[in-house]
Amino acid sequence: MIRRLLARPTGCFAVVVLALLVVLAAVSLVWTPQDPFRADPFQQWAAPSLAHWFGTDAAGRDIASYLLAGTRTTVLVAVGSGIVASVVGILLTAIGSLTTRWVREGTAVLLDILVAFPTLLTAMLLTAVFGGSLGIVVVSVGLSFGVTIARVARGEIRRIARSDYVVAARASGVGPLGVLTRHLVPNAAPLFTVQLSLAMATAVLAEAGLSYLGYGAGSDTASWGNLLADLQTYIGVHPWSATWPGAAIALVVAALSLLGDAVRDAADPRLTTGDRTAAGDGTDPDDRPSAGRAADRPAPDGTTTTPGVTA
Fold first, then answer.
1. Whole-angstrom distance, CA of residue 22 vs CA of residue 25
2. With bands split at pLDDT 50, 70 and 90, how would you rate the model's confidence at 309?
3. I need a surface site. Which of 55, 109, 149, 275 has the fewest CB within 10 A?
């Protein structure tokens, strides 16, 4: 599956970008070009150079160092939100699929109500009540997308639950938890993957947006949203400075969104079968010579015979 994923341009692009993000986050733990929080009043708005790869901001901070340190926040928010969304989504899916009828119907109504609240609005409400922090962003986005995952996966899970192999597993004595972990979740994994990638992309956007509004990461935490909020005031004078955090956010969000689609396409047996056919000799099976068409070839005496026609 990994080979099929990397064979797709979108999948290869997403994997490369996200792998680079993780590597940069790991590198930032031990090294940055300069101290990302050190302000130098004599280096305000310095142009990009060997000393300052992306220039400096109004306080004289090195933008490249701050962006590198901000990758840790981005990875933490994306992975944390994905974990919370997975747990919440699987739990709600199990409750809505493997319980009694009145519990399933009540869960369905609850999911329809909760999914009506936008993710970013939910995050803003929670941060306004409990204060701005990365933990609140992770929990709020995870809860919101966990509800979305459960609602989207409910129909697929119920379809799988009625399949013959699940009925046979239940008849052989496998309990609800075993059915969920052995059959339901693995077969619905492509759908979960797409939703999780969207949850992680939304988490990156939500963290940047909330930090931009002052509800996200604190001023003592390196965040791309904080940097974008600081630079947008001077965008009319130094437009190049705000390009770097904006491009970083857009690149990571695009990679996460494309990753889910690429995984779904690589895991779809119908698409992979089509890919194998296209990767073969490049011809349609109907256009290939068959044994039945061999009779259309000229005979040694120069005549041509056609099946079903006698001379």
1. 5
2. very low
3. 109
